[in-house]
Amino acid sequence: MRHLKTILLLSLIILIALPAVAGRKRVKKGAGPMLSSGRIALFSSPPRYEEAMAYFDTALTDYGMIPEAYFYRGNIFAEYASREYDIDGKVKFFNKMTASYDSMRIACENKEVKKKYKSKCDDFQAVIDSIIKGSWGTNYNEGVKIIERLDNELKPNVANAADSIELKAATAELMAVADTGLGFFRISAAVKPDEHKSFEGMGILYDRLDNADSALYWFMQAYTLDSEQVNLVQSIAYSYIQLKDWENAIVFFKKLIDMVPDDINTILNTAVCFNNLQMFDSVMAYNHKAIAIDSSVASAFFDIGQIWLFRSQTYSDSTKFFKQAQNDDEANRYQTLQNHSLDSSAFYYCHAAELDTNDAVAL
Fold first, then answer.
1. Cα dist from 123 to 126, 130, 241, whole Å
2. Which residues, in sequence order, are CB contacts of 190 under 8 Å at separation 6+?
3. Where are the alpha helices (DSSP H) in 162-297?
4. Angle, to 10 degrees, between the axis of helix 87-109 and the axis of helix 67-83?
5. Which residues contact residue 46 at a Cβ distance below 8 angstroms, ignoring those fewer than 6 apart?
6. What is the pLDDT of residue 15?
7. What confidence score (pLDDT) does residue 361 get?
8. Among residues 166, 187, 217, which one ends one of the domains?
9. How many domains does the structure of the chain reveal?
10. pLDDT in tens, 66-75
11. Are 199 and 217 in contact (CB under 8 A)?
12. Residue 165 sits in which domain range?
């Protein structure tokens, strides 16, 4: 009986204690010990990356923005990226690395974050700058080497293929190498997303593959980051030409002329775009600009001569119309305009022929 009372008493104590135990919250480990545990896991041999990441994530969840936690998270993602062979996987990890480093910078600049957490911000940033510089430079330079290989070896191999079998093999190699190059530029863009050169590199690769749509897309991505690069503006203009989008080509050729006012090729290409839109007054204006810079440009004289010849034919039709309508005054006016146009056409054609003796049309 006495034992039974003891058992009942113990059971009652347990029942009373259970709700208190069940309702107890997880005891938070201090931010300092949490970060210390994360560092121990990270720098152990071998490193325990998942465990370290869990400590840093928990520190951020429990205590908010802590620069050190973001810094080490970024380093872990960089390590994951270095061990990943799949390009998509690498890009994913580098994106996470960059996001963590960006969060660290924001935390360091946040006045509400305690000063004790920001004491090593400069040291962390120096390490980050070194990591980004190395990763970006390595991958970007490898991408540039791919472009050079396409230009100097692989595209000539395709052009000089002796038969369909050789052509197929050369094309397959070109596409495979180009895809590798795109991977390098994608990685460099993930590492340093505010650098226009990575996106421009992707545009150049697609341009080499004669994919004007994709080339233009990446050139425009680069342009949003830096609109003052002459080569980039030129690439966009020529991409629009390949797509026969004359209006937008003109927009970027005009930007290019503002940057490099005396570039003859840009001015002549602008005239070509206006010609394709049948905006002949503008064609004349831009060809005259070209002549003002370089009076030896035969094509500019020839194009102006063509426009005057076209106008003479239009005036000829008007002359015939008014003669048939017995309106001599208007007929004579258009006859005068026709004669002037023919004289002007002959003048410019003669100059073109003098400058380019091989121009059979002008002759």
1. 5, 11, 49
2. 90, 91, 94, 95, 98
3. 164-191, 196-208, 212-225, 230-242, 246-259, 264-276, 280-293
4. 170
5. none
6. 42
7. 54
8. 217
9. 2
10. 999 999 999 9
11. no
12. 136-217
Is the pLDDT reported for residue 156 higher than 70? yes
Q: What angle do CA 104, 106, 107 make, to 5 degrees?
A: 65
**AA identity, residue 197:** K
Cα–Cα distances in angstroms (integers) from residue 81 to residues 69, 75, 114, 125, 193, in the given order: 18, 10, 31, 20, 16
Report the mean per-residue pLDDT for the chain: 87
Confidence of residue 145 (pLDDT cuts 50, 70, 90): very high
Instruction: Show the tokens assigned to 211.
Output: 């994919």
Which amino acid makes up residue 42? L
Mention every residue, 6+ apart, whose C-beta is less than 8 A from residue 34: 55, 56, 58, 59, 62, 63
Q: Are 205 and 186 in contact (CB under 8 A)?
A: no
The pLDDT of residue 2 is: 47
Query: Is 155 a domain residue?
Result: yes
Amino acid at 206: Y
